[in-house]
Amino acid sequence: MQTGISTASLFFRKPTEDALKFLADNGVPCVEVFLESYCEYKQQFGHVLKDCKGNTAIHSVHTLTTQFEPQLYSINERAKKDSFDLLEQTMQTAEIIGAKYYTFHGGARFKRTPFKIDFGRVGEITSDILDVTKKHGVTLAYENVHWGYYNYVGFFSELKKRVPELKATFDIKQARQSDIFYGDFIAEMGNDIVTAHLSDYSEDGKMCLPGKGVTDFKDVFKRLDKVGFDGAILIEAYQSDYDKETELIESLEYLTKLAQDVFGRKIN
């Protein structure tokens, strides 16, 4: 098990490579690299990141919102092909930097019309996506996202029946934004959780860094421990959730100590 920080927490503050170097220079043991645009999906950028990571392990990669992931499920074959080409590029970059997991938003559901998922089709395409990631030594981890396919409890279970190798990323802020208790998502994902994105919120509902708000992280960790979690606990915050960048490191120290106490073992 590891604790770390996503470079997404420095989005708008530092370019991705500088964010990674900042975290590495501050001794963060593992990170998720948040790739911010199309040029960052290319192999050349992977080599830039590799030079910046120092001794920090790259646990996972994540891509920006809806740049290509929803189109992987498109009925438009050209859009689908272009998106799979971008997926291939991204996984090549993930392989270069040694990422083990791909945190995946998946399909989007923006329209306010009734929406019914064809799990047969979604399962088949998700299997194709997983085949691409596996080719590069990367495991696909579907994330609960309030605007995505996985914004309710039950989606992951249905998809897992069709894609047995699928893993999961648990995001506590996305659970809040879906207005669903975080423990229900943890229970559904179970021991398939490989990544946990953590943030906090204040009494008035404003997001903040873990340890600065009202979230009962002891309960979060107990629930993760109960399902056999042994992945990476990562801070994923927004740039407006804190003032000084050193606060990220302080928050990580808080989470690491608490996790060691609850899980009863050393966190690497």
Summarize the structure.
With 268 residues, the chain is an alpha/beta fold. The chain contains 9 helices and 10 strands. It is globular and about 45 Å long.
CATH C-level class: Alpha Beta
CATH topology: TIM Barrel
Query: Which class do the helix and strand fractions yield?
Result: alpha/beta
Q: What kind of sheet is the major sheet?
A: 8 strands, parallel, barrel
In total, the number of strands is: 10
| Spatial sequence of strands, sheet with the most strands | 1-2-3-4-5-6-7-10
Spans where pLDDT lies below 50 across 5 or more residues: none
Percent helix, as a range, is: 40-55%
Order of helices and strands: EHEHEHEHEHEHHEEEHEH
CATH superfamily: Divalent-metal-dependent TIM barrel enzymes
Shape designation: globular
What Rg is obtained from the alpha carbons, in whole angstroms? 18 Å
Q: Please work out how many helical segments DSSP would assign.
A: 9
What amount of the residues lies in strands? Answer: 15-25%
What's the pLDDT, averaged over the residues? Answer: 96
Count of discrete domains: 1
Distance between the termini: 6 Å
CATH architectural group? Alpha-Beta Barrel
